[in-house]
Amino acid sequence: MLRDRTFDLSTEPVSALAAEDMALRAQVEQFLYREARLLDTRAFDAWLELWTPDGMYWLPHEPGQASPHDHISLFWEDATLREVRARRVSNARNWSQQPPTRTARLVGNVMLGGRDAQGRLVVHSTLVVHEWRLGQRTLAGLVTHKLDTREDWKIYLKRVDLVNSTDAFANLEVFV
Predict the structure, then answer these.
(1) Which InterPro entries has this protein been placed in (predicted)?
(2) Closest Cα to residue 82, out of 143, 20, 38?
(3) Between the CA of residue 120 and those of 109, 114, 143, what are the distances in Å?
(4) pLDDT at residue 56, rounded to an integer
């Protein structure tokens, strides 16, 4: 999965959505707010359930980066890597999480982009994460979700383009 060059990274929709589809936008917003709340309350098991089995979590290093295969990324995680990190940051014996990191996320500027070639919903939003662990820092960026909405809504791709992605970071332990 991590080396799968056929994974669909495109974030450009192939079909537009009707501007009057406000009900869908409300559902999308609630889904994104729920994801943020699960992460802020460290409900990692429930957050992991929001993903498709083949879903990928990506934080590119470079602005406009087209692929995680051709350049280093801050994160490029499949289901196994997401679960490993969730277990590590929630383990009581993990000294780097003593005290545990606390976060508060603000999700906004939610825009429906359309559907990709496989019918997944492309959604753009802005994210601000306030993080505290022995001090406070703020992360901000543009987020693109590709959501599989055929049955129960699931995340196929979450791409977070941090505004300062090329800066030197202290450890990014929690999910952005």
Answers:
(1) NTF2-like_dom_sf, Rng_hydr_dOase-bsu
(2) 38
(3) 20, 8, 16
(4) 98
Q: Please tell me the distance from the alpha carbon of residue 135 to that of residue 121, in angstroms, as a whole number.
A: 37
Q: CA–CA separation, 119 vs 67, rounded Å?
A: 21
Q: Please write the tens of the pLDDT for every residue from 120-161.
A: 999 999 999 999 977 888 999 999 999 999 989 999 999 999
> What predicted TM-score, i.e. pTM, was given to this entire model?
0.86
Cα–Cα dist 126/142, whole Å: 5
Q: Report the relative pairing of strands 154-162 and 102-115 from DSSP bridges.
A: unpaired
Q: Distance from CA of residue 10 to its chain's centroid?
A: 15
Residue 79 is inside which H or E element, if any?
Answer: helix 79-90
Any idea what DSSP says for residue 17?
P
Task: Determine the Cα–Cα distance for residues 104 and 107; give it in Å rounded to an integer.
Answer: 10
Sign of CA dihedral 77, 83, 88, 89: positive
**Any idea where the domains of the chain sit in the sequence?**
22-162
